[in-house]
Write a structure and sequence with these properties.
This protein is an alpha+beta fold and 561 residues long. Helices cover 46% and strands 12% of the residues. Strand 6 and strand 7 form a beta hairpin. The N and C termini lie far apart (118 Å).
Length: 561
């Protein structure tokens, strides 16, 4: 049957492009050309559908696509089975990655359940339709608590690589994904970087769901929200954002999500990657994003209104906003009596000052300001420096570099050997250097005090090292004026920093008196009735004023002392 021709402009195009000289127009030829064009369009639409990579009804096509997507890796396991249900046989396909998924769980709850599903299901089949058959497989046969449906092939591939098991059934455009993660992981134990005397011993590990569950155990609140996303075009690392809805500032939460979504990179292997992508001042030596391995510490910050960022594959959890005073606080401060906690915090602040300023002050005083040193001490120091062939500035720089080398060597060496190497190395090198006359005894003492004080405030280790060398350079050039100039530079820089809109030096700059109860000093817990204003809280009140302990009343008739 010849189609009715309705488009004159197409006739002219057909004449110019297909008719040869002297050849007349033929409707049948044109109709064949139109049919050919329609077939071409249909093929293009089919190709577009293939480009979108959707699960199709044909099982063989889906199997080919899955194998093409996952490649020829030997740890990818495939299994084809037949499901028999109510005298009806349907082909099915199972795929998982060995080592990421639990094979015993798959054999028991998936393969065995599907292959032994031959029972009379008339009461579940209201109509003989494919949809009802799939419903029976999901609700009756598979004995798994976590089951989801997916149609996009890329999402299916990602789920398989995360440890889930794929189930494809012939005749369906839907893939079933069962949560069967069974990879080995490190047990929950006390973290090496944040040990304490009193308090919980547990720490985060490298499994994301374990870390979020540790926080959920601390905060039994339905408003505790964990939002998820994937970052990394190649690694597709799972990320969780944790906060308490109604306490955390929505603007801070939205800003965290915005910065995370802007990350466009191939790989996220550790939370340090995320920290460098989202921090406000990436070129500053001071951290504006906090990290911790302690669930109790992270839970406490979430309860104050901060936002936690969990990254799969690392025990370090990020929290924002972050202020400077947090580096002087540890979780154990809140488990001890306030007087001792305040004294320890003041010691940390003093140690922070000494680890930065001690070498610079020694260089400045011994080089430019001899009159400030008592005579007897000056004579002793001069006698010690008499045999040293180097200037005091060069001597201090060399000793500081040697100490950093020893410290780095102790960290990178195997744990049973590292501590012994650093201690023995420091003793042997220090004693030999003094006896050989390369350095003086006072210089060894100064560098030792500097190093020990640096271990007290480990959260600022990077900033301490760089600030120390800056102060030493200025002290060698300008004396005490250089030391003062260096501290003014550092203080001015810290005043300019912000962490997600929060001033870095708050509550000291700007001054927020209500937060001084828990900053450099720590008042008793019953005085801390409100959350910190510096992190832009919503619910300011966190406890009642009636928590202060009172003396018990004596029974009537008993004499009052």
């Amino acid at each position: 049957m010849v189609k009715k021709f309705r488009y004159p402009q197409k006739i002219e195009f057909f004449r110019k492009n297909t008719l040869q000289k002297g050849e007349e127009f033929n409707k049948e030829s044109y109709d064949k050309s139109e049919e050919s064009n329609q077939d071409s369009i249909s093929k293009q639409e089919h190709n577009v559908k293939q480009d979108k990579k959707w699960i199709e009804k044909d099982l063989l096509t889906n199997i080919i696509r899955i194998k093409q997507t996952l490649g020829k890796s030997v740890d990818v396991k495939y299994r084809e089975i037949v499901i028999i249900l109510n005298d009806k046989k349907v082909n099915a396909f199972i795929c998982f990655i060995d080592g990421m998924a639990s094979e015993p769980y798959i054999n028991l709850h998936i393969v065995k359940s599907l292959m032994e599903s031959d029972f009379n299901a008339e009461i579940y089949l209201s109509e003989a339709s494919d949809e009802d058959f799939l419903t029976i497989v999901k609700k009756r046969i598979l004995s798994s608590s976590s089951l989801k449906e997916e149609r996009e092939l890329d999402a299916v591939s990602t789920s398989i690589q995360m440890g889930e098991t794929l189930i494809l059934i012939d005749g369906y455009e839907t893939a079933l994904l069962v949560s069967t993660q069974g990879f080995s992981s490190r047990n929950v134990g006390e973290p090496d970087t944040e040990s304490n005397v009193r308090g919980p011993r547990e720490g985060f590990n490298e499994v994301l769901k374990v870390n979020t569950s540790l926080i959920r155990r601390k905060i039994n609140n339905p408003n505790l929200i964990f939002e998820g996303m994937q970052i990394g075009k190649e690694t597709k690392t799972n990320i969780r954002i944790g906060y308490i809805e109604g306490i955390a500032n929505p603007k801070v939460v939205d800003e965290v999500k915005k910065r995370l979504k802007q990350i466009d990179t191939d790989a996220i292997l550790e939370s340090g990657y995320i920290e460098q992508f989202i921090e406000d001042h990436p070129f500053s030596i001071f951290p504006t994003v906090a990290n911790s391995e302690k669930p109790d510490k992270v839970a406490g910050k979430i309860l104050e209104g901060r936002v936690a960022i969990f990254c799969d594959g690392t025990p370090f959890v990020l929290t924002v906003p972050h202020v400077f005073v947090e580096t002087l606080q540890v979780g154990e401060d809140y488990y001890s009596r306030p007087y001792l906690s305040t004294f320890i915090r003041l010691l940390r602040f003093l140690s922070l000052f000494l680890t930065i300023a001690t070498p610079g002050l020694y260089i400045a005083i011994t080089t430019y300001h001899h009159e400030m040193v008592p005579t007897q001490l000056l004579v002793s120091m001069a006698a010690a420096e008499e045999k040293v062939p180097f200037p005091i500035f060069l001597e201090a720089m060399l000793m500081a570099l040697v100490f950093e080398i020893l410290r780095e060597g102790g960290v990178r060496m195997p744990r049973p050997v590292g501590g012994a190497i650093s201690i023995v190395g420091a003793l042997v090198i220090g004693e030999a250097a003094v006896q050989a006359g390369f350095v003086s005894t006072p210089m060894v003492i100064v560098i030792a005090i500097t190093g020990i004080c640096g271990f007290v405030v480990t959260a600022l280790n990077d900033a301490n090292i760089l600030s120390r060398f800056l102060i030493m350079l200025l002290a060698g050039a300008l004396g005490l004026y250089g030391v003062l100039m260096g501290f003014l530079i550092l203080l001015g820089h810290m005043c300019s920093l912000r962490s997600f809109g929060t001033p870095y030096l708050s509550p000291q700059a700007p001054i927020i008196w209500s937060e001084w109860k828990d900053s450099i000093i720590r008042m008793p817990l019953f005085f801390q009735k409100s959350r910190p204003q510096s992190i832009m809280w919503q619910q300011s009140k966190k406890q009642s004023l009636k928590n202060k302990p009172t003396k018990p009343n004596k029974p009537e008739g008993e004499e009052q002392n």
